[in-house]
Amino acid sequence: MSPPNGPKSLWLVLLFGMGVMAKNLNCPAKCTCQYLEVNCTGQQLQDFPTTIPLDTRQLILATNNISYLPSVELNFLSDLVYLDCRENAISEDLDFAFISLNKLIYLDLSFNNLTRVTFTTFSQLSSLVVLKISNNPNLMEIEKDSFANNTWLRHLDVSRTGLTFLDTSIVKDLPNLKSLGLSENLWNCNCSFLDFTLWMKESGVRFPDPENISCYSPAALHGWSMPEVESKLHYTCLLHLHDTDYAFLGLIGFCIFSAGTVAAWLAGMCVVVYEFHATKGGNDEDEDEDEEATT
């Protein structure tokens, strides 16, 4: 005799099996799917996988050969909170690639071929907390206001890229920033970099791997660590005068001296002319009086 709950248990097993089959049918080829997670790590994928379940929350595409993130397919995944695309070949422009992913919290684009970041690259990711774009050797520029809409950003990593300069306003206006990776970049520590070094000292942000955050150029500052280079830049850029500065000051002094000399000469000439005419006028009056007296 079967137990009283036997048929009910059988139905539950059947329903569970059907659910697993449905999940497997929707799972992309070469990927594994669990509850709300799709993992396609190390499958040598050349393209963004299709047939990803629309309710996916975590998508892992690490260690493949994907060169392009299609905005249409990607933005169907509006519930996505975790996207790992590290170690691929992504080099295409990512502007407007994440339009509908306003729930995304974690984004890893490290070890790719990104070349620049603009305002429209991540502007729709208003919930983003962690952004990793390190190890992109061709990343040469991050435009001002690139993270203006990412006010929840806490961890940002731009280490080991092609960056030589980072405008202070890019990170200064991130109120929740706690960690900023800057190591092993070829930083150009000229006078334009002074504001950034000041911010590093005063911000309270943590900088991982600080011993590898150093100046690459100019040659006189090569190897100087940041933000210790701030005192040197402060002296060089604000207090110390170069030969050209002395030449400029000398030129200004010469111009002032010349202008003063010319003004004094003109004033003297005016006085001489005035006295000449005044004296001549007085003599004419005396002659007229003498003539009247004789007549």
Please describe what this structure looks like:
The protein has 295 residues and is α/β, with parallel strands linked by helices. It is built from 7 helices and 12 strands. The strands form 3 sheets. Strands 1-2-3-4-5-7-9-10 form an 8-stranded mixed β-sheet, with no helix packed on it. The protein has a two-stranded parallel sheet with strand order 6-8. Helix 5 links the parallel strand 11 and strand 12. The longest helix is centred in the C-terminal third of the chain and has 52 residues.
Keywords for this entry:
alpha/beta, 12 strands, elongated, about 10% strand, 8-stranded mixed beta sheet, about 300 residues
The portion of residues forming beta strands comes to: 5-15%
Overall average residue pLDDT: 85
> What gyration radius follows from the Cα positions, in whole Å?
37 Å
- Globally, the shape reads elongated
Largest sheet: 8 strands, mixed
Helicity, as a percent range: 25-40%
Give the uncertain stretches in residue-range form.
Answer: 10-24
What's the number of extended β-strand segments? 12
Query: Which structural class do you get from the secondary structure elements?
Result: alpha/beta
Q: What is the tally of helical segments? A: 7
- Order of strands, main sheet, comes to 1-2-3-4-5-7-9-10
Distance between the termini: 168 Å
Order of helices and strands: HEEEHEEEHEEEHEEHEHH
